[in-house]
Design brief:
Strand content: under 5%
Largest sheet: none
Radius of gyration: 20 Å
Number of helices: 6
Length: 209
């Protein structure tokens, strides 16, 4: 089966709009993050190698390596969200006529829900990283493409907030409330750290326009 990342954009959007449950919001969140990383890379590529930006050359080269690595990881998350949702649906589809079947089904559902909580939480974490990288692009990148650094920050934040919704919905169904609260605490830390940062980055970019 062709992975989502290898499909034409129009096909992905058609599938996103269809009645099919996947791809869905989780994949869209990962795509937002991947677009953020790509835009940060764009700012880097339009900064490195230019004599007038020689003083930030090393910083932008390092940033480019990080943003490209992040873009690869976030792109992989697009398919990861589909895969974990499919496993969750498979667990819900297990037989439940007999008591032992009900017990096995419940255990499988909880295991899948745990994974379905961890995957978007990981995506949220990567999007938070994308926010941080966009700040460097905004502060040190070529002023001619500074607006793209701003879009990178906003895309990363949209991806983070979107992934958070999937964490909330799946964590809410976990029977292990200690685990659920731990995951939600991790998420809240990411959200709190990014919210102020995004506003600051937006302000940095706007001031340079």
């Amino acid at each position: 089966m062709t992975e989502i990342k290898d499909k034409p954009l129009q096909i992905f959007l058609d599938e996103l709009a269809s009645k099919a449950p996947t791809p869905g919001g989780g994949s869209a969140a990962a795509l937002m993050g991947a677009q953020s990383a790509a835009l940060t890379s764009m700012v880097c590529n339009l900064t490195v190698g230019k004599p007038k930006f020689a003083e930030v050359e090393a910083d932008m080269q390092a940033l480019l390596a990080k943003s490209e690595s992040l873009r690869e990881r976030l792109t992989a998350m697009i398919q990861a969200d589909v895969d974990v949702f499919d496993r969750l649906m498979a667990a819900y589809g297990l037989p439940k006529e007999k008591d032992e079947q009900k017990a096995a089904r419940s255990e499988a559902i909880q295991a899948a829900l745990k994974e379905a909580t961890e995957v978007p939480l990981a995506c949220a974490g990567l999007c938070a990283e994308a926010v941080a990288l966009s700040r460097i692009a905004a502060e040190k990148g070529n002023p001619g493409v500074i607006s793209d650094a701003g879009v990178a920050a906003m895309a990363a934040y949209a991806g983070l907030k979107s992934a958070a919704l999937n964490v909330y919905i799946n964590a809410g169904s976990l029977k292990d409330r200690s685990l659920a609260e731990s995951k939600l605490a991790e998420l809240e830390a990411l959200l709190q750290g990014a919210e102020g940062a995004v506003e600051e980055i937006y302000g940095i970019v706007k001031a340079k326009l």
